[in-house]
Amino acid sequence: MTPARNEPAVTLRRLLPEPAELTADEAMNQWRPWESAPPGRPSMALNMVHTTDGRAVLQGKSGGLSSVADRQLFHAMRTRVDAVMIGAGTARVERYGRIVPDPARREQRSAVGLQADPLAVIVSGSLNVPSDLPLLQDPDSRVVIVTSSASSLADVRAEVEYLRFEPVDLPAALSQLRDAHGVRSILCEGGPRLNASLLTGGLVDELFLSTAPLLAGDAGERSIVEGAHLREPYRVALRWLLEHEGALFARYGIGQQ
Asked: Where are the beta strands (DSSP E) in the chain?
């Protein structure tokens, strides 16, 4: 993030494409995903963290895998997209609040022509989303919930709209987000089942993958993609690779092999 108060910006080593030292903001400043949206939908990037042996969750949460460098990249990415998407399970477990709480970060967004606060998009087929979620109690947040439920959440303070499909139709939802809400770029922060649905639908353009220098074994759970039944593997093209204190931060372009 712009480093959180009292948290200095860390220096990352860029290993590829050419060696350099830079901050998280410097790494992300050239990323302008709204300029590369494919026809009919927003561009879609996944942002995930896992251990060296491929575990995406420790004790039910991804937070134990994070680091200062990972968090700073995470929040820098949020300044570069129109919307942030999460599955209902991730929103519940991680207790999502306002997507960009830092005023300096909101100014960064405005400076590149984005709205100060990104749209939050929650995917929940059954509408299993608690109304007391901090995000839904924040009056400055705009939220779209993609669901197959005909119900609506009560006692929320955020501005909430619904995109209803039976069953949930992610391609149609992305098309509506583009047409009705002007969303040109989305950062998806999981969880693994939502990632799988987006991948199997051919809806993902990039992957930002942080690899924590940890071996979790049975203490870890799930992979970053859970239940993706791909007819063919997807080839990923490494665009850059950063390092900090043994953690690796890769950016991949995604295309079907």
From this structure: 12-16, 20-22, 43-51, 57-58, 83-87, 119-123, 142-147, 159-164, 185-188, 206-212, 220-221, 234-244, 247-256
Q: Token pair 């839904």 is at which residue?
A: 136
Do residues 144 and 177 lie in contact, with contact meaning Cβ atoms separated by under 8 Å? yes
In this structure, which amino acid lies at residue 96? Answer: Y
17-40 residue pLDDT tens: 999 999 999 999 999 999 999 999
How far from each other are the two terminal CA atoms of the chain, in whole angstroms?
Answer: 34
- SS3 sequence of 70-134: HHHHHHHHHCCCCEEEEEHHHHHHHCCCCCCCCHHHHHHHHHCCCCCCCEEEEECCCCCCCCCCC
pTM above 0.90, yes or no: yes
Task: Domains for the chain: give ranges and CATH numbers.
Answer: 40-214+221-256 (3.40.430.10)
